[in-house]
Amino acid sequence: MNRIKAPHSAEISIKNSKFIAYLFPIAGVTEAETLLAQVKREHPKARHWCYAYRLGAEEYRCNDDGEPSGTAGLPIYQQLLSFDVSDSLAVVVRYFGGILLGTGGLIKAYKESTRAALQTAELEALIPQIIFRATADYAQMSTLYNYCQRAGAQILEQEVDWQCRLRASVAQEQFTQLQSLLAQHQIQVQAEE
C-alpha cells in the first residue's frame, strides 16, 4: 500500500470544463475535512469540489458534491484503489465550461483527472505500524529509549516519573523483536488493540 508523499496537483480540460485534481497525504478524517475546506477557499468560483479519501485498508469516503450520483466521488476513489493509495485525499475541482458531459463523460473526466495527478505524484510505501505502551522504572528509561531508537520507533507520548510510561509506534516487523529485547530488561510492553 502507498500514500501520497507530498501535496500534488494536475489539471485537464474536457469540452471547456476544467478539472483540477489535488492529492494530499492525510492522517485522519479531520485533516481531510480541513484540506477540503482549504481547496474550496482557493477555488470559490468552481462549480463542484468532488473528493474521495482512504484511510488504512477499510475506511473511505467519497462525495459527488452535486454531480449525478456515482459520477465523481466513486471514480476518484476507484483511482485511489487502482494505484493502491491509502492515507490520502483526492479532491477534484470542476469549473463548468458550458457543455454538459453526460454521465459517461463525467465519470471519465473525474477518473482521468485523478489518474493524471496520481501518475505524476510521488508515492511512498506505507509500512504497517503497531502502537504500543511500555512501562519501566526510571533507571531503565535510557535502555527503553535506546532500544526504541534502534528499532526506529516513534515516541508519541511519554510520562517520566518513578514509574515511567511511554506510548510509541514501530514497524510491525520490528515489534516482536523489540518486545523480547525489552522483556529481558523487565520492561513491560503491550501492543494497543
Which secondary structure elements does this structure contain, and how are they paired or packed?
Blueprint: E1 2-4, E2 8-14, E3 17-25, H1 29-42, E4 48-55, E5 59-63, H2 73-82, E6 88-95, H3 102-120, E7 123-125, E8 129-137, H4 141-151, E9 154-159, E10 163-171, H5 172-183, E11 188-191
Antiparallel strand pairs: 1-7, 2-3, 3-6, 4-5, 4-6, 8-10, 8-11, 9-10
The share of residues in extended strands comes to: 35-45%
Please give the alpha-carbon distance between the first and last residues.
21 Å
Output mean pLDDT. 93
CATH-scheme architecture of the largest domain: 2-Layer Sandwich
The ordered string of helix (H) and strand (E) elements is EEEHEEHEHEEHEEHE
CATH top-level class of the largest domain: Alpha Beta
Regions with pLDDT < 50 over 5+ consecutive residues?
Answer: none
Shape, per Cα inertia axes:
elongated
Note the total helix count. Answer: 5
CATH topology of the largest domain: Ribosomal Protein S5, domain 2
Q: What characterizes the major β-sheet?
A: 5 strands, antiparallel
As a percent range, the share of helical residues equals 25-40%
How are the strands ordered across the major sheet?
Answer: 2-3-6-4-5
CATH superfamily grouping of the largest domain: Impact, N-terminal domain
